UniProtKB/TrEMBL annotation:
ABC transporter domain sequence ranges: 4-235
Keyword line: ATP-binding, Nucleotide-binding, Transport
Taxonomy, superkingdom: Bacteria
SMART domains, per the entry: AAA
The protein, known as: sn-glycerol-3-phosphate ABC transporter ATP-binding protein UgpC
Any one of the GO CC terms: ATP-binding cassette (ABC) transporter complex, substrate-binding subunit-containing
NCBIfam families assigned: PRK11650.1
MF (Gene Ontology): ABC-type transporter activity; ATP binding; ATP hydrolysis activity
Xref: Pfam families: ABC_tran, OB_MalK
UniProt-listed GO biological process terms: carbohydrate transport
């Protein structure tokens, strides 16, 4: 096992595309690091440079204590798993698993031992004599994983390994990957553009945009304290709601005004976000996560002190344990380049919602105990301790440690 360090790593493809731009990343020994971002942001390029499948145009990559800039892939002691894994169709599962080790002239007994262990770990014991054609998609993907595991490499590099699987299988494979990582503790760099995968798998998550690192942090910190509008809009599903707002002084203290509403801003928020007081009397962009809403009726007790927003449910999506309530607010959608880019995830269906002139469509995620139906009025409670504020010009989160003094 080994740490992986990237120092000012650039990739400029022939033709001049700067796919990765001055990337710095310290991946700890045994860490599960996820690279996430919209299509074309440079995730695969970064991974392929670590693997040695792509030359680097500038900077330095180290695996363990070796600089590997000029080492060919086979000497880097890493194993890759791709989206389009190719199993050998004429070989059994067992032979597929053993193949790489045979090439390396490993003793037969050692090969048998490793294949047995990997098969057991992946629940493939009973399929060892089958050929890939007689396996399900998930089982094939596990064989591909197994081929990486038997090599006992210093690091796993995985590029969207689950994206060819159906949703249910993806969830169960995600769980297996988590268990596997806990058991083996091998340093893993995992590429995905699925932010749910990123949140559930990563010890830390690195968010990229146009080849530039936006933020690298634990999933919880990315969710709670995104560094800018782009990360705020990209991480979290459904996405954070945004609106142009104004920070004002009112009788009870500070408040944020938007679309005819006025939410109190607690003193603790000013303490947590240094520099926010400078925005009093000024415009900024307000962000509220869907999960920071609750149906005021269903939310007896816990949200008693929360602010209230009366509105009307346009659409409700019942998810079993929760309900997404889509509602309109009387303010035009925020047209910041960062909020637009964050929505551009390549495969989202949400973007298909009709635009509604100068109103914005927001989402509140409320408890399933709520009996709200489309077309009904609803009073939403808002947790005002979790409001997010962004500078209108730069899109940076106001008071975020990484932005203070910028
Ligand atoms: N061989 C290449 N030659 C020229 N440009 C390339 C090459 N490979 C990738 N690019 C460009 O580099 C940028 C980053 O590509 P990359 O494949 O790393 O993106 P990605 O984040 O993995 O996207 P996706 O989520 O779609 O897989 C893109 O603009 C892409 O068009
Ligand atoms: Mg890719």
């Amino acid at each position: 096992m080994a740490s992986i360090v990237l120092r000012n790593v650039d990739k400029i493809y022939a033709g001049g595309v700067k796919a990765v731009n001055g990337l710095n990343l310290d991946i700890k020994d045994g860490e599960f690091m996820v690279l996430v971002g919209p299509s074309g942001c440079g995730k695969s390029t970064a991974l392929r440079m670590i693997a040695g499948l792509e030359d680097i145009s500038g900077g330095e990559i180290s695996i363990g204590d070796r600089v590997v800039n000029h080492l060919p892939p086979k000497d880097r002691d890493i194993a890759m798993v791709f989206q389009n894994y190719a199993l050998y169709p004429h070989m059994t599962v067992e032979e597929n698993l053993a193949f790489g080790l045979k090439l390396r002239k490993m003793p037969k007994a050692e090969i048998a031992k490793r294949v047995q262990e990997a098969a057991k770990m992946l629940g493939l014991d009973q399929y060892l004599k089958r050929k890939p054609a007689a396996l399900s998609g998930g089982q094939r993907q596990r064989v591909a994983m197994g081929r990486a595991i038997v090599r006992e490499p210093q690091a796993f590099l995985m590029d969207e390994p689950l994206s060819n699987l159906d949703a249910k299988l993806r969830v169960s494979m995600r769980a297996s990957l988590n268990t596997l990582h806990e058991r083996l503790g091998v340093t893993t760099v995992y590429v995905t553009h699925d932010q749910v995968e990123a949140m559930t798998l990563g010890d830390r998550v690195c968010v990229l945009r146009d080849g530039l690192l936006q933020q690298v942090d634990t999933p919880q910190n990315l969710f709670d304290s995104p560094v800018n509008l782009f990360v705020a809009g990209f991480m979290g599903s459904p996405s954070m709601n945004f609106v142009n707002a104004e920070l004002v002084r009112s009788d009870g203290g500070a408040a944020v005004a938007f679309a005819g509403y006025k939410l109190p801003v607690p003193d603790s928020t000013f303490a947590e976000k240094p520099g926010l007081d400078q925005y009093l009397g000024k415009k900024l962009i307000l962000g509220i996560r869907p999960s920071d809403f609750e149906d005021a009726v269903a939310a007896n007790g816990s949200s008693g002190g929360w602010a209230r927003i009366p509105t009307r449910a346009e659409v409700t999506e019942e998810l079993g344990s929760e309900i997404n309530v889509l509602f309109l607010i009387d303010a035009p959608p925020v047209e910041h380049k960062d909020t637009v880019a964050a929505q551009d995830t390549g495969d989202d269906e949400e973007a298909a919602l009709p635009l509604v002139g100068d109103k914005s469509l927001w989402t509140a995620r409320v408890n399933a105990r709520s009996h709200v139906r489309p077309g009904q009025n609803i009073e939403l409670a808002v947790d005002t301790h979790n409001l997010h504020f962004f500078d209108t010009d730069s899109g940076l989160a106001i008071g975020h440690p990484a932005n203070v003094g910028r």
